[in-house]
Amino acid sequence: MGIHCEINLHKRADGAFVPGSVVSGTIKYGVDVPTEFKKITVSLKGNGFLIIHDRQAKNKGRAVDSYRNSEDYVDIDNVIYTNEKKDNPLPIGMYETQFCFKLPEEVPASFKYQKRAARYRVRCYIEYYVRIKFETIGLFNLNKKFKKEITVVSGIKPRLPTDPVIYGEVKKLLSLFSKNNTVDIKVNVPKSVISTGGKIEFSYEIFNDTNLTIKGVEAKLVELHTFKSHGSKEVEMSKDIKDTDSKTGSIASGEKKTIDVVINVPSERTSLEHSKIVSREYFVHIEAIIPFPHWNAVLKFPVQIGDVMGNIHESENNDAPPSYWEVMMGDEKEKGEEIDDVDDFEDES
């Protein structure tokens, strides 16, 4: 059975789709022999998959423990051909069908993640695609599926204060010989919801009410992924965002210092929301370096990064589809089938 298929999308200028937008296009397909199909279905699918491997079990002589989760974001089917009576084989030839679906208003962005850190290996992805499925008649399952992935960019719903916020942290040091034993950090954050590629602006004040000299203060942007499997298993993986750190010099005993900071957010860093299996959040981490044996004084505050839902506008690309036939080979894999391979994980850094 020879089936040729091409799926052409009407894309935005940047090649992506947004929640609530229309996914439309044309599917051209052909058969080179008369074929009895039971049904031909065109679909829009959106799924999320997660697998967590816990290597601690392996260290104890057991097999690696695995935890999974999955989620459906959109599942729309449109049957374009039926042959229930088995008396109407599809003749040799070329065929064309139009499709038009609408994405739900609140769905997460497309996402791929494959990292290992400490005892865990995590693989997670969120994908969307248009699919055409040819269901054959007979005892043997010769169904054919062809799909074309689409990229979805999503926004955020502001959940942090839109007014200026003040955060504070007091670090008490163990001191037997002095009553002055605190490091006081206060942060003024004018804006906690930051647009894509925007700036995080804030000022912080450090009061060194100890008899020690603070070696320095560092502020940086930190990214935190949280993965949630079935049951109670939850894994967090964090990383410092490159080129977002700022450092100040030492602060003497009894000295108070105020620092203004601007962090330029890389355009590819955005919060990930609207999913039950994964989230991506951002925090500004401020750390005052205190001499050994004391622990450092740390304050962190959250920011949301991304365009607010409803403010992401579509810009359609009306370029003509390619003039050639793209033969899309092979059936799609079943849900979660390809996420079991654990040999190609990247180290978290």
From the alpha carbons, calculate the radius of gyration and give it in angstroms: 27 Å
- 3D shape: elongated
**What string, H for helix and E for strand, traces the elements in order?**
EEEEHEEEEEEEEEEEEEEEE
| CATH-derived architecture of the largest domain | Sandwich
Number of DSSP helical runs: 1
| Main sheet record | 7 strands, mixed
Span between termini: 48 Å
Class of the largest domain, according to the CATH hierarchy?
Mainly Beta
Give the mean pLDDT: 86
The class by helix and strand makeup works out as mainly beta
The tally of beta strands, per DSSP, is: 20
Query: How many structural domains?
Result: 2
Helix fraction by DSSP (H/I, runs of at least 4):
under 10%
CATH topology name of the largest domain, in short, is Immunoglobulin-like
Low-confidence region ranges: 315-330
Strand portion: over 45%
What does this 3D model show about the protein?
With 349 residues, the protein is an all-beta fold. The protein has two domains: 3-152, Sandwich (Immunoglobulin-like), CATH 2.60.40.640; 165-310, Sandwich (Immunoglobulin-like). The chain contains one helix and 20 strands. The protein has one helix spanning 56-59, and strands at residues 3-9, 16-17, 22-31, 37-54, 65-82, 93-102, 111-117, 120-136, 144-152, 165-172, 181-189, 193-194, 199-210, 216-228, 234-240, 246-248, 256-264, 278-289, 297-305, 346-347. The longest helix is centred in the first third of the chain and has 4 residues, at 56-59. The chain is elongated. The two termini are 48 Å apart. The model is unreliable at 315-330 (pLDDT under 50).
